[in-house]
Amino acid sequence: MPPSGERVRRAAVITHGRVEAVGDAIPRLQRLAGRAGVELAFGEEEAARHGVPASPRPDEVDIAVVLGGDGTMLRALHRFLGSGVPVIGVNYGRVGFLASMRPDELETGLAQAFAGQLEAIELSTLELELDGRSHVAVNDVVVASAVPGRMVELGWALAGEPLGVQPCDGLICATPTGSTAYNLSNGGPVLVWGLDAMAISFVAPHSLTARPLVVPRSRPLEVQNLTDGVETTVIVDGHAVGVLHAGERTEIRLGHQRALIGSVPGATFFRRYRHAFG
Predict the structure, then answer these.
(1) Which residues of the chain have pLDDT under 70?
(2) Per-residue pLDDT, 5
(3) 166, 181, 190, 248: which sits with the fewest CB atoms below 10 Å from its CB?
(4) Side-by-side strand order, sheet with 161-168
């Protein structure tokens, strides 16, 4: 991204999958960008969706502007993962925790961002390998029973130290970004952005003592399916990427790549937390 205080010259635009969800946001953004001297870059899919010309090199930008909800933000964070491009959102979704501003704040908030009044916050990611393929999660990795209603037994260990076998419906391993998603709904701890740690919580554990755990970078998590006759599905940021058969295991660790989320003055983590969940 440009150094702090440097004006934005080129911005990618990523929008909600339903055109009607963003209403008049595109023309409003175009007018604002024209006044600010910012070139808007639309990829082919976005251009076709909104009836605008596609831009050459749509990922060679200073900033990515998202018009959508948390799902759209997550898609944009994946797209610009490790690129140094901050992603800033205007909430056209339901919760919109990852977005920096409401629709009625589009002009004032993005004018600040385009003028260089932008904080870029580094977000930790998760990595795992499964069936010879590497996967990166911005939000979370879930290992869950592949058969609805069937409990599984998951062995788990941290940094090679076994912590037992837990009967449950599944396990969630979440980044600070993902700690306010499925992890929060499951009763797991909220991790403030900027922490380099991951939260581990079991889904419907058949136990009176199972408790969530917050783990630092030096402690990778190993999960093993110890259930006879029942596979577990491995889900990365909401997408199933494979299964663990009985006896198979995978390791989840904090990743080397970082995502960057943009925030304008006043749109702090705690303001978002209060508005979204308070």
Answers:
(1) 1-5
(2) 67
(3) 190
(4) 133-137, 126-130, 249-254, 221-225, 152-158, 161-168
What pLDDT digit, counting tens, does each position of 22-47 carry?
999 999 999 999 999 999 999 999 99
Instruction: Give the integer Cα–Cα distance in Å for 243 and 257.
Output: 24
Listed in sequence order, the residues at least 6 apart from 220 whose beta carbon sits closer than 8 Å to its beta carbon are 158, 159, 251, 252, 253, 254
What are the tens digits of pLDDT across the range 72-96? 999 999 999 999 999 999 999 988 8
Q: Is residue 178 part of a domain?
A: yes
Q: What crossing angle do the helices spanning 25-36 and 106-114 adopt, rounded to 10°?
A: 40
Report if residue 1 sits inside a domain. Answer: no
Cβ within 8 Å of residue 156, ≥6 positions away? 162, 163, 164, 165, 166, 171, 200, 221, 222, 223, 224
User: With 0-12 CB in 10 A as exposed, 13-18 as middle and 19+ as buried, what is 3?
Assistant: exposed
Amino acid at 219: R
What local confidence, expressed as pLDDT, does residue 275 receive? 86
Q: Which range of residues forms the domain containing residue 160?
A: 126-254
- Known catalytic residues are 70
Question: Are 159 and 61 in the same domain?
Answer: no
**Bridge partners of residue 90, in order along the sequence:** 67, 101
231 and 146 Cβ atoms separated by less than 8 Å: yes
How many folded domains does the chain comprise? 2
- pLDDT, residue 4, reads 52
